[in-house]
Amino acid sequence: MAITGGEYSRMAKRASPPTNKIKNGIFAFLIGGFICALGEGFGIIYERIGLDADEVKLMIPVTLIVIAAVLTALGVFDDIAYYAGAGTIVPITGFANSVVSPAMEFQSEGRILGTGAQMFRIAGPVIVYGTLAAVIYGVVYYMFLR
Predict the structure, then answer these.
(1) Between the CA atoms of 96, 102, 105 and 111, what dihedral angle is there, to the nearest 10 degrees?
(2) Residue range 21-67, pLDDT digits in tens
(3) In sequence order, what are the residues at sequence separation of 6 or more whose Cβ sits closer than 8 angstroms to the Cβ of residue 106?
């Protein structure tokens, strides 16, 4: 029995649960905003304990990365992401989750070929691109904009 493209589309539409875009958008906004507000809160705490402005700028993303990595390792980040959707893709926390998730998934293959190698599945291209882009921007600035 052959199914046409139109029939398949209708079957898929019936089988797919409806999404509440407004509710999903609100959750994404609220959780993403909470993550950003959490970062600002850590900034205030770090200023009050006496760190200077450069140290505060460094400690906020480090703190958010560690929190996201720990929540991913504990399996909690995926539960939060289920409700928050795109709200958890705030760059710092989403990146930390994308680095830790493959490492956790392949830990049964050992520390080096499992956890170590898989950790850079997502992070590797980002690090390479970031380094290459920084070099190109530096050359352009040095040659043309100085």
Answers:
(1) -90
(2) 888 889 889 988 999 999 999 999 999 999 999 999 999 999 998 99
(3) 114, 115, 117, 118
